[in-house]
């Protein structure tokens, strides 16, 4: 195939992804969605016996929660908020006139109390804090949500709206670090069973600004963020899973406490569902019915 034909071109031509006219915003076919359903079922089989509490939030959180989380200090370039028309009849007439003139009608909108969720676990921490101290042994959660990050790109693995499945552990430092290590080992077995090449590497979040440069260095030096990278669409492998140790950050941000009143530590393992699906299509072909038998057995049984 012509080298100029990208993975995105192939996915679009096959009807697996559907263009909307905005980079990073795509429709998905039933075949694409079935791959995600099958992979999520695999995740549930691997983690199901742990007894996680299943929580599903909408793909939005309160603007106050986003502000309190510190997200705007670290990642303002990625954040999204919901705006809406809040005027009366006269304001509506102005809006319609602006539309007729081809003007910017969004200037007639105001910010609401809703922000788009940047990571599936973000609405979880204020909920956990509001429910009081953790029980002895801590808590474990299974969360999944569509997430938004404003980074338009022609790379299909860098969507603006995408889904994350996460297991989140809250407890002592020892408990959450053991949880993270256990999931690194599990993830390596899972991805190897799908015949996907991978590597687990130190990483950092895309912190913004001058202070962010120091935060990136600290995050890498302390090994707080590890990623499982898989070749997807570009020469450089793409982060498809992440293993994050937050230390007691959310204890100080939200007041998540241990049973004895001390600050709780948290950790999460995150699966980028669209990225995993894209990796499977890239390495095994665009027709799942023709994928290797061992991969189909893992996903379809």
List the helices and strands and how they pair.
Blueprint: H1 7-14, E1 17-19, E2 26-28, H2 30-47, E3 53-55, E4 60-62, H3 63-69, H4 71-74, E5 81-85, H5 89-100, E6 109-116, H6 124-130, E7 139-148, E8 161-171, H7 173-193, E9 199-202, H8 209-221, E10 225-230, E11 238-247, H9 249-254, E12 265-272, H10 273-284, H11 293-300
Parallel strand pairs: 3-7
Antiparallel strand pairs: 1-2, 4-6, 5-6, 7-8, 8-12, 9-10, 10-11, 11-12
Helix pairs in contact: 2-10
Protein name: Amino acid--[acyl-carrier-protein] ligase
InterPro entries: aa-tRNA-synth_II, aa-tRNA-synth_II/BPL/LPL
EC number: 6.2.1.n2
Tell me about this structure.
- This protein has 301 residues and is α+β, with helices and mostly antiparallel strands.
- It folds into 2 domains: 35-80 and 118-300, BirA Bifunctional Protein, domain 2 (2-Layer Sandwich), CATH 3.30.930.10; 83-116, no CATH class.
- 39% of the residues lie in helices and 25% in strands.
- The chain is built from 11 helices and 12 strands.
- A 7-stranded mixed β-sheet has the order 3-7-8-12-11-10-9. It has a 3-stranded antiparallel β-sheet with strand order 4-6-5. The chain has a two-stranded antiparallel sheet with strand order 1-2.
- Strand 1 (17-19) and strand 2 (26-28) form a beta hairpin.
- Helix 2 (30-47) crosses helix 10.
- The longest helix has 21 residues, at 173-193.
- It is globular and about 60 Å long.
- It starts with 6 loop residues before the first helix and ends with a helix.
């Amino acid at each position: 195939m012509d080298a100029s034909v990208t993975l995105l071109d192939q996915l679009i031509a096959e009807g697996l992804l559907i263009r909307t006219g905005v980079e990073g915003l795509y429709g998905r076919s039933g075949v694409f969605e079935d791959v995600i359903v099958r992979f999520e079922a695999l995740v549930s089989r691997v983690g199901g016996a742990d007894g996680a509490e299943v929580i599903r939030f909408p793909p939005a959180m309160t603007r106050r929660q986003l502000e309190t989380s510190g997200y705007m200090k670290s990642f303002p370039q990625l954040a999204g908020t919901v705006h809406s028309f809040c005027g009366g009849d006269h304001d509506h007439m102005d809006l319609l006139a602006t539309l007729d003139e081809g003007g910017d009608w969004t200037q007639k909108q105001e910010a609401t109390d809703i922000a788009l969720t940047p990571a599936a676990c973000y609405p979880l921490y204020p909920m956990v804090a509001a429910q009081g101290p953790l029980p002895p042994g801590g808590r474990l959660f299974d969360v999944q949500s569509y997430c938004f990050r404003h980074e338009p790109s022609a790379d299909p693995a860098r969507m603006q709206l995408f889904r994350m499945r996460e297991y989140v552990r809250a407890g002592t430092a020892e408990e959450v670090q053991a949880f993270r290590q256990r999931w690194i080992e599990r993830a390596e077995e899972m991805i190897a069973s799908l015949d996907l090449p991978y590597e687990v590497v130190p990483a950092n979040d895309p912190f913004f600004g001058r202070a962010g440069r120091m935060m990136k260095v600290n995050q890498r030096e302390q090994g707080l963020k590890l990623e499982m990278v898989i070749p997807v669409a570009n020469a450089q492998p793409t982060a498809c899973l992440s293993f994050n140790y937050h230390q007691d950050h959310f204890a100080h941000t939200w007041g998540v406490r241990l049973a004895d009143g001390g600050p709780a530590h948290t950790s999460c393992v995150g699966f980028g569902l669209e990225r995993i699906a894209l990796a499977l299509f890239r390495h095994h072909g665009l027709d799942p019915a023709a994928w290797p038998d061992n991969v189909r057995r893992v996903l379809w049984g």
